[in-house]
């Protein structure tokens, strides 16, 4: 399982967000360049439709591949009341032949994206990862060098943390508490819940840029 929230920030404020994250996390950022392919299979012989994502890490000297299957979100009154989405997630490293393998199983390419940005990995009550990236679409099949932004001037921010059925409550608290520190720059909510940019972002960014971000947890 994983706990996840998302938000957006204007590209002009990303440097300020990086300064804030550096101060909060106490670790250096990692560069991010991920080619993401979304594959879908239709209902066949009684088998339900399925969707998987192949992620190719282009920042590595030799690109590495990961397959990810995102399952359903936790449901019920309790799930609706918490500010973080809790969902099942299965992920595994695969070889560069994975795309060919899924094609042979009947999967078809639905869409592909290129995510470019940075990530912070740290421990603050849970193993939290914050990614900040521009989401780009391909004009030609697999043409990552010709990718263009889906939403120019806007970047996606995602906060995730692994969880289990035994500890997800504690992880939700850790993620929610951390997100409060980012509130002046952006609002983070469950994926699919659009909140837009926050009106305090410009002033918060200016303050961070002037003092260099001395905040620590």
Protein architecture, described:
This protein is 22% helix and 40% strand. The chain is built from five helices and nine strands, in the order βαβββαβαββββαα. It has an eight-stranded antiparallel beta barrel with strand order 1-5-4-3-2-6-7-9. Helix 1 (14-25) crosses helix 5 (201-211). The longest helix has 13 residues, at 168-180. It starts with a strand and ends in a 6-residue tail after the last helix.
Strand % is 35-45%
For the sheet with most strands, the description reads:
8 strands, antiparallel, barrel
Strand order of the largest sheet: 1-5-4-3-2-6-7-9
Structural class: alpha+beta
- Low-confidence residue ranges: none
Number of helices: 5
Distance between the termini: 26 Å
- Average pLDDT works out at 91
Number of strands: 9
Keywords: Activator, Nucleus, Transcription, Transcription regulation
Organism: Olea europaea subsp. europaea
GO cellular component, one term: mediator complex
GO molecular function: transcription coregulator activity
